[in-house]
Amino acid sequence: MDFGLTEEEKDIRGAAREFAEKEFPDRARECDLNDEFPRDIWKKACDLGFVATYIPEEYNGAGIGYMGTCIIVEECTRVDPGIGGIPMMVALGSEVVMLYGTEEQKKKYLSKIPTGENICCFAVTEPDAGSDVAGIKTTAVKDGDEWVLNGSKMFITNGTIADWGVFLAITDPDEKKVHRRFSTFIVDMDTEGVNATKIRGKMGLKASDTADISLSDVRVPEKNLLGERKKGFYNVMGFFDRSRVYIGAMGVGIAQGALDLALKYVKERKTFGRPLASNQGIQFELADMKTRVEASRNLIYKGAWQTDNGIENPMDVAIAKWYACESAVKNCDQSLQMHGGYGYIDEYDIERFYRAAKVTEIFEGAKQIEKMIIARGLLA
Q1: What is the pLDDT of residues 108-135, one digit of tens each?
Q2: Which of 37, 120, 143, 293 has the lowest tally of Cβ within 10 angstroms?
Q3: In 258-278, which positions are buried (b, 16+ CB within 10 angstroms) versus exposed (e)?
Q4: Terminal C-alpha separation, the chain
Q5: What mean pLDDT is predicted for residues 191-217?
């Protein structure tokens, strides 16, 4: 087994790290404080080919697969979790078009994401349906050659800045098989009846836009049905099997960033007249953090490699995402503890990392859902 990166992947890592270290530090605290999506940095990321890099070259993507995407996401979130999520956050939902869309849909919608012409969103979660995808209530009723959508979506990334989104709705409520009651649609966000309201007051990741979206008699043409009718639930599951890989990479980046901040701090500080880094208890903590990073990275790289090679791997992806994101939370906790009171104020970056880490255990499937997937895989 080869655990090394290719020369191309090393170049990608170096370029992503250079971009993040140059562009993020001056904006990170400002964007977090003001709930601001940094459009200038998004545009630069697009110009450098860092956005939606799993999209094939024929649709303007870099075509470097999920391994390349994970490398970019890790290096970016290592510098700042909020801004660092841009390369994959602005493309959430595009995988559904890539996997199940028609050629016309791919050319119209998919090709505009890597170039910075469009941002998309993925609208599944509702006020009463988060982890329980099959519990959504949004409906889509056929009316001639159009579908009429009504309902509410919640916690939607890019909700107020997206140009279009992938929406899950009930199309066949009388279908006996519950999971065949749903279909997915591409909805242009400027369509009459679509209303997005920005969510403020988030604990972390404030540079990432999040919104509630209401749909009131939104008319969508038949050609915007995405994939086969009644296959919407399965389309969403196919999306999660991929998005969890790079969300896990985000966990790796945050865990590594927290370790970087801890190392920097303990090397500079003294306690009881001795360098903090010389304390054996601190050294043991650092060893714990490093081990989590390495284990998480290998799990994520395995998941990315399997995905790029067409291997169906929901259990392995769930293992990777759960462990990597839990490692992010634990490393941030340990790093902040080492910073002491300084870690509790926003002058030190670990405070921002700490707040951002927790949501990685929640979105794209809460860690309890990942454990359920793992258990089902074991017992199948």
Answers
A1: 999 999 999 999 999 999 999 988 999 9
A2: 143
A3: bbbbbbebbeeeeeeeeebbe
A4: 28
A5: 97
Question: CB-based contacts of 99: which residues, under 8 Å, 6+ apart?
Answer: 227, 235, 238, 239
Dihedral angle over CA of 160, 161, 165, 170, nearest 10: 0
Could you tell me the fold of the domain covering 234-379?
Butyryl-CoA Dehydrogenase, subunit A; domain 3 (1.20.140)
pLDDT band at 347 (very low <50, low <70, confident <90, very high): confident
pLDDT digits (tens, 9 = 90+) for 79-88: 999 999 999 9
Pairing of the two strands 182-188 and 225-226: antiparallel
Q: At what angle do helices 7-23 and 25-34 cross, to 10 degrees?
A: 60
DSSP secondary structure letter of residue 126: B
353: closest CA among 47, 49, 78, 124?
A: 78
Q: Which residues pair with 152 in a beta bridge?
A: 214
- Listed by start position, the domains of the chain span 7-112, 120-233, 234-379
Indicate yes or no: pTM above 0.85.
Answer: yes
Cα diameter, the chain: 79
Nearby residues of 16 by Cβ (< 8 Å), 6 or more positions away: 50, 71, 72, 75, 76
Closest of 2, 25, 50 to residue 298, by C-alpha: 2
- Which residues are designated catalytic? 364
d(CA 262, CA 335): 5
Per the CB < 8 A criterion, the answer to whether 254 and 353 are in contact is yes
Of 363, 328, 302, which is closest to residue 66 (Cα–Cα)? Answer: 302
Domain 120-233 belongs to what topology? Butyryl-CoA Dehydrogenase, subunit A; domain 2 (2.40.110)
- Under the banding of pLDDT at 50, 70 and 90, the label for residue 1 is low
CATH superfamily label, 7-112: Acyl-CoA dehydrogenase/oxidase, N-terminal domain (1.10.540.10)
Tell me the C-alpha distance between 284 and 301, whole Å: 26
